[in-house]
Amino acid sequence: MEWDTDWGLRGRMAFTMFLLFALYVVFVGVLTVYFGDFLFPMVMLAGFGIAQFFFSDTLALKSMGAREVSAEEYPELHRRIERLSQQADLPKPTVAVADTQVPNAFATGRNKKNATVAVTTGLLRTLDDDELDGVLAHELAHVKNRDVMVMTIASFLSTIAFFIVRWGWLFGGDNRQGGAPVIVAIAVSIVVWIVSFLLIRALSRYREYTADRGAAVITGKPGALASALVSIDGRMDRVPDQDLRDGSAEMNAFFIIPISAGFLSRIASTHPPTEKRIDRLRELEREMETA
């Protein structure tokens, strides 16, 4: 299945990724010049990045308390995901469930062949059939667009910048070659981490709109996903603060609705405002009705 390209959205994603790439090129250049013993931490972090890339799905599921479930345990959920996967031209992903009252869903896995779609028991109790289809199709669109892989790669050097901000003074060398003090590299890393933090979240918000559009095409019912977003967003404000919220920051980009908290959460959010997503889905529904 291929859906029409939103060139405006794709252009914004491309520009954001270009800015990230340019930022990282400057970052690596500065570290190469100013960090005396940069090679050792880079090798360590590269190994960590590779491990994260290959095992992120397992770690994500464990961090969220989700477990793989069989077709015997959740037959209707398996049938639903298998049907939607066929409509999206995707292999059926692994199905996982997290036992929590917070209504949410997320996808993980580095490619289409080892993807996992996880839902919470709260989501299964909250949504009707069409709404649940919309949410599951949204997560399958993330899989089809390889969003987990893209965001993992995009955030790798940002992670290195954060590591240097915290531990860079341990690898500074003695500056015998007349290089600038280690504080220069650490200061640059602070700037890179802050700017990349905002760019990565902007990229995540753009990809969220794309996943919404993909879900609408898979199901043919943009209004169902819009209705689901209303239901989920309303419920998120009424669940306990400590349920599925602690330790979830790294997974926020892949939830159907973000777990938001803190000052300036909008600019740092991995998701666009729910009302804007709904407006776009309603507009897409009108376009599909008149097509």
UniProtKB/TrEMBL annotation:
It is an enzyme of class 3 (hydrolase). It holds the Pfam family Peptidase_M48. Its main location: membrane. Its EC number is 3.4.24.-. The keyword Ribonucleoprotein does not apply. GO terms for biological process: proteolysis. GO terms for cellular component: plasma membrane. Residues 74-284 form the Peptidase M48 domain. It comes from the Archaea. It is a multi-pass membrane protein. Its cofactor is Zn(2+). One of its GO terms (molecular function) is zinc ion binding. Keywords: Cell membrane, Hydrolase, Membrane, Metal-binding, Metalloprotease, Protease, Transmembrane, Transmembrane helix, Zinc. InterPro entries: HtpX_protease, Pept_M48_protease_HtpX, Peptidase_M48. The keyword Amino-acid biosynthesis does not apply. Zn(2+) binds at H138, H142, E208. It is found in: Cell membrane. Binds 1 zinc ion per subunit. The active site is at E139. The chain crosses the membrane at residues 12-32, 38-55, 148-170, 182-203. NCBIfam families: PRK02391.1 (NF002669). PANTHER family: PROTEASE HTPX, PROTEASE HTPX HOMOLOG. Belongs to the peptidase M48B family. This is Protease HtpX homolog. It comes from Halorubrum halodurans. The gene is htpX.
